[in-house]
Amino acid sequence: MRFRPTKLQIYTFVASMPLIGFVLNYILYNDRIFHNINVWLISFPLLLLIGTLSWATHIMISDKIRVNYPGLNQSGLRIVLLAFCLIPFMSACVIFIFILYDSFEILGYQISMDDLKMGLAIGFSVNLVFETLYETDYILEKYKESVEDKEAAHQMACNPLPPRVQKPGS
Fold first, then answer.
1. Domain ranges in the chain?
2. pTM, full prediction
């Protein structure tokens, strides 16, 4: 699997990751995010690193599914496979973050079920919005390709090749 994000995927990641990092830090540390500089110096870069790795893997999983099921007529199957692959992956990443922070007591964090539920809800919501956007972009691109193919086929049918010119003496 290769890592080949689209421009849309790059732009949405760059635009959303700081906000996601802020929200996750708020879940982890509540209002300490506003009073403790270490949240910004330690936790924010760590979440950015984990988020980047998670996003890159997410892109590779999505690409693999789209390569194996590229057709417009396979959209339903592709969406089901994306859901069955990406929801557990996203959940594992969120759980990993909370367990990592709790296990290493990063800035004194102690895990709570409420924090975990909120983190999972945020992760699910973000993934739902962006995966819907990415799949819509993919379907529109495939539709555009199919229209162009139909137009090319129509042009070929309407403009047959000129008759073959015969050489003198043949």
1. 7-156
2. 0.86
